[in-house]
Every structure is written in structure tokens, then in C-alpha cells.
Design a protein that fits this description.
Blueprint: H1 2-11, H2 16-35, H3 40-69, H4 75-78, H5 84-113, H6 123-137, H7 140-171, H8 181-193, H9 213-237
Length: 242
């Protein structure tokens, strides 16, 4: 499996996708610093997991797919005597690594900003929160790779960003929030970080502070990630050279 991972990592060498790992979190840090310096840590977190991260995952997934499909239509992969399931899983895990690195870069910037601005979020909660952001968001990677392959960039953007965000914010405060994967990250950040979906701090007694949402969101996210990765890997295995 390591050979497949190394091959995928080499494909991104000197590409814009690899640069995005650093560009996305750094741009967000600058924006929050200059536009909302008083609420720097809160807005950096909220803008990332509620708005920018779904777009970032969509973009790197589409770029990953287009690198193989734009010119050769995956002929360079499908014609080789390799396990296509492992190729697909390696693609997913490579993007999981990139998302994790971007989140860690953002976390480092948030913690460093805490030395200059009073931080309402403790270091341990900030670290836990960012880990859970990764865990509850990576299910979007196999989904976006699949959507990009089937319906292209525009369709993937419409579904994962436009429709996904609309549903996520609409259902996050409902009792049945758990039926919508796009609500999971936003919902569990309230008890973990004390940040409401609209980006403000939750007041004591707010129903969204109930910590029972945390294990629900984590369990559902990991389960969906495994299901989507395995099912799309089997789908990819049956692809033929066009």
C-alpha cells in the first residue's frame, strides 16, 4: 500500500494542489486577522469548518481527479497491472493527509495568534476541536472524488458546497441534525469550542452545548468515511479504459 501512496504523493509534486495545503489556511488566517481581529480565533475556526473547508476539499478532490482524467481519461492507470482499489484508496488517503496538514497549519496560526490576542478558546480545546474537524470532514473526500469523476467540477461544487452548506446550516439546530452529514462538524463544534453555527459564542444553558452530539458526530463520520471509501473503491475497480 505504501507504494501506491508514494505514487500518489509524487503525482502532486510541484502542483497547485500541493500549494493549496499551505495557501488555504494562511489566506484564512490573514483574512480573519485583518477583518475580525478581536474575534480572531473564533472566526478562524468557524469560517474554516463552516465555509472554507468544504470548498477546499471539493477543489483538491476535483484537481486530483482532473490530473488523471483531463488528458488521458485514466488510461495511464487503468491499463496498468495494479490494484485499482488500492489506487483509489491511496488517492483518498493522500487527500486526507493534505486536509490534515492544512488543518494543523491553521491550528498553529490560531494558537500563535493567542499570544497576541486574548484567546477565549483554551489550547486543549482548540487542539481537540481541530482534530474533530478533520475526523468529521474527511468523508467528503471519497464523495467528491466520485462526483468529480461522474459529473465533473461544476456538479461537484453545486452538490458539496451549495447544496451541502445550505442543508447543513438549515438542519444543524434541528433535533434530527444527525441525518445530514454536512451538519455534523458544525454541530459538535458548539460543545467542543463553544461556538454556535453563526460564529458567535454560545451562552450557558444553550441546548447546542449538549456534549451528547460529539460521539454521535464522530461515529457517524467515521462510518460514512469507511462506507464511501470502500464502495467507491469497488466502483473504481470496475472502470474500463475509454
Amino acid at each position: 500500500m505504501m507504494q501506491y501512496l508514494n505514487a500518489e504523493l509524487l503525482k502532486f509534486k510541484r502542483t497547485f494542489t500541493k500549494k493549496l495545503v499551505f495557501i488555504a489556511p494562511v489566506v484564512l488566517l490573514f483574512l480573519t486577522w485583518f477583518l475580525a481581529i478581536i474575534w480572531f480565533q473564533i472566526n478562524a475556526f468557524n469560517w474554516w469548518y463552516a465555509l472554507l473547508l468544504p470548498g477546499y476539499i471539493t477543489l483538491i478532490s476535483v484537481l486530483s481527479d482532473q490530473k488523471e482524467s483531463k488528458k488521458l481519461h485514466y488510461r495511464a492507470v487503468l491499463a496498468l497491472p495494479v490494484s485499482l482499489k488500492k489506487v483509489w484508496i491511496a488517492k483518498v488517503l493522500t487527500l486526507v493527509l493534505y486536509v490534515t496538514l492544512s488543518c494543523m497549519i491553521l491550528l498553529a496560526g490560531i494558537l500563535l495568534g493567542g499570544f497576541l490576542i486574548p484567546n477565549p478558546i483554551s489550547i486543549d480545546r482548540a487542539c481537540l476541536g481541530m482534530i474533530l474537524v478533520v475526523v468529521t470532514a474527511i468523508w467528503q473526500i471519497p464523495l467528491c472524488l466520485f462526483l468529480s469523476r461522474k459529473i465533473g467540477m461544476l456538479g461537484t461544487i453545486l452538490i458539496n458546497i451549495c447544496v451541502g452548506l445550505a442543508l447543513g446550516f438549515w438542519l444543524v439546530s434541528k433535533s434530527f441534525w444527525w441525518i445530514c452529514p454536512y451538519s455534523w462538524t458544525i454541530r459538535i463544534m458548539t460543545p467542543v469550542l463553544g461556538i454556535l453555527p453563526n460564529g458567535t459564542l454560545a451562552k450557558s444553558g444553550d441546548l447546542l452545548l449538549n456534549p451528547s452530539s460529539i460521539p454521535i458526530g464522530i461515529s457517524l463520520s467515521l462510518l460514512l468515511f469507511v462506507i464511501l471509501t470502500i464502495s467507491t473503491a469497488y466502483w473504481f475497480q470496475n472502470q474500463e479504459v475509454e
